[in-house]
Amino acid sequence: MSLYKNLKPAHLTVLDKKEIIDYALGRLSPSPCSFADLGGIWDVDGEYTFHAFENHDVEKAFLVDTDFTDKALAKAEKRPALQIIQDNFGRPEVVEKIGPVDAVFMFDVLLHQVSPDWDRILEMYSRICSCFVIFNQQWTRGDHTVRLLDLGEKEYFANVPHDPEHPNYKGLFDRLDDMHPQHRRKIRDIHNIWQWGISDKDLIAKMEAMGFGLQYYKNCGQFQKLEHFYNHAFVFSKRPAV
Q1: How crowded is residue 68: how many other Cβ atoms within 10 Å of its Cβ?
Q2: Are the C-beta atoms of 92 and 121 separated by less than 8 Å?
Q3: Residue 57, SS3?
Q4: Comparing C-alpha atoms, which of 36, 35, 42, 52 is closest to residue 72?
Q5: 140 and 229 in contact (C-beta within 8 Å)?
Q6: Number of C-alpha atoms within 13 angstroms, CB side, residue 87?
Q7: For 55-110, what is each residue's pLDDT tens digit?
Q8: Whole-angstrom Cα distance, residue 99 to residue 107?
Q9: Of the candidates 130, 108, 152, 143, the residue with the CA atom closest to the CA atom of residue 27
Q10: H/E segment holding residue 203
Q11: How many C-beta atoms lie closer than 10 Å to residue 149's C-beta?
Q12: Any residues with CB less than 8 A from the CB of 56 and at least 6 apart, and which?
């Protein structure tokens, strides 16, 4: 049996993400709709934001990231309903700037969120949205979420998709308390490195505690060659008050 039988081509995970956008905006949101795409630039140039515009009636939208590409900015100029926010979406000021929206997209970002941690991020955005659209590399080693850095250097690099010589990771465990010049926080608390192994059980329990029910779930296959991480897609919507 092949060790990599569950690997999924990258273009298929792109389709999975577009599918949950269409589910959330097409079935669970009003028309016209509004959304915020958090951390939607790296490696995709805002592709999911522009997919939403091309396939749904969008009244307003926000694309948030710390670093923008020229390609994404050029496409954004053609969308007057789209507001660019170049900032860390974990800052309370960003949440306030966005204000009420129908949906929040979090693709490949939740496992990176620390200080505030991933669950606190969800709390912050639960106050302004009625639907969460999440695609995340989920921890399948057990039912409990783990902070990957707490595993120690050897186990950490056995469970992340980066070589210890990668620029962001070289000498990482010797630099954890150094200040990062761009983000002005300790390196142990930057989103540029893998931070969490989030279990499905903990994610769903957190959403339910905030009043959001699971509407859509899909196991989209193993992430790269990592034994304990699988791509999972979720859509949660706010349950009506009783």
Answers
A1: 17
A2: no
A3: coil
A4: 42
A5: yes
A6: 14
A7: 999 999 999 999 999 999 999 999 999 999 999 999 999 999 999 999 999 999 99
A8: 20
A9: 130
A10: helix 200-209
A11: 19
A12: 22, 25, 26, 31, 33
Residue 242 above 90 pLDDT?
no
Burial of 171 (0-12, 13-18, 19+ CB in 10 A): exposed
Give the distance, in angstroms, between the CA of residue 148 and the centroid of all CA atoms in the same chain.
Answer: 17
- pLDDT, residue 186, reads 95
Phi-psi domain of 18 (left: phi exceeds 0; alpha: psi -120 through 50; beta: other)? alpha
The type of residue at 110 is L
Residue 220 CA to residue 223 CA, distance in Å, equals 9
Separation CA 84–CA 103 (nearest Å): 16
Residues 6+ apart with CB under 8 A from 93: 87
**Three-state DSSP state, 82:** strand
The residue written with tokens 């991020």 in the block is: 121
Residue 34 has pLDDT above 90, yes or no: yes
3-state secondary structure of 81: coil
The answer to whether 53 and 82 are in contact (CB under 8 A) is yes
Question: In this structure, which amino acid lies at residue 171?
Answer: G
Nearest to 118, CA basis, from 12, 180, 198, 64:
198
Helix or strand holding residue 200 (H, E): helix 200-209
